[in-house]
Hints:
Elements: E1 3-5, E2 23-26, E3 32-37, H1 40-52, E4 69-73, E5 81-86, E6 90-95, E7 101-105, H2 113-134, E8 139-148, E9 153-157, H3 164-173, E10 183-190, E11 193-198, H4 202-206, E12 220-230, E13 237-240, H5 243-255, H6 267-287, E14 291-295, H7 302-311
Amino acid sequence: MPVMEQETAKQCPPEQQPSCHDVIIRLHHGEAIRLCSSGQETKTNISGMRELMCLKEEPPPQWNGLPDAELIGLEEMPTIRNVMHRNPMTEIAYSEDWERLFVAGWIRSPRNVFHYRHYLWQTALICGATHALLKGRNAILVHCSVLETERGAVLLFGESGMGKSTASARWRAQGGKCISDDMALLDFSGGDEIYVRRMPTWSACKEGKNEWNYPAGEELPLIDVLALGRSESGRDEIVELSPAQYFAQCYRSMFYWYTFNTKSLPDGMKARLANRIRQFTERITGKYPPRALMTVLEGNDFRTVIERHLQTQ
Length: 313
């Protein structure tokens, strides 16, 4: 059950209108995910996140309702709150009425500033996407790699350690483009079409690759989705999976980013979240054939195998 904390009387931070400091990820059909901030330090963090995601300065859209996540200082946390997650750098909490979601962070040591800032960015992004999903927005974060082609994006999903980053590196080494090798936002707001948006990759942020950026405003049409596995034949190849295997792997990849900050949600909100993820999984598995890309750790055939496969689609 969630932890209800009470100290001295303190109100939630006031509702904020969109500003040029907010992170607003516009979806295909007029929807959006919005993260906002209060206080100079959190605004600086949000501005850094905007820069990382290549979001342009532009007049904010008309906004009805609350932001999806509010990045605040720890001293601004409402006293009565439902704590979802807490660690030495961050606390995630809902307001008492479960309508507002707050992400508070603090720096323990100047040596941790770089690591902390990127961690905070991704935490705020995941929390905002979670709340937006619960409120009915048609977009979901997926644990995957995104291989970019002239026609659009190919998603590779699989368990941690299965080789998504290695596959992405091989794709780049053979002349392909892959910006996101850990996380992407699937945008289902465009009707039958599904679009992919690049999201900041934690592995790159953690390694301090400042030259990397993630143009979240650009949408790529999704042209194929492949499960990822280790080849036992000694070569890269695409094989058929059973529909049940394909569904299970897809569902786990879609649920991956929503586990750490949702364990303490009320049962009704948990059920709603699981149902929405299941619906999006059904959209994917009903649209794309159940296939897996079985890979080896090295070799020159990787890109050729994928491009040959795409020619048959």
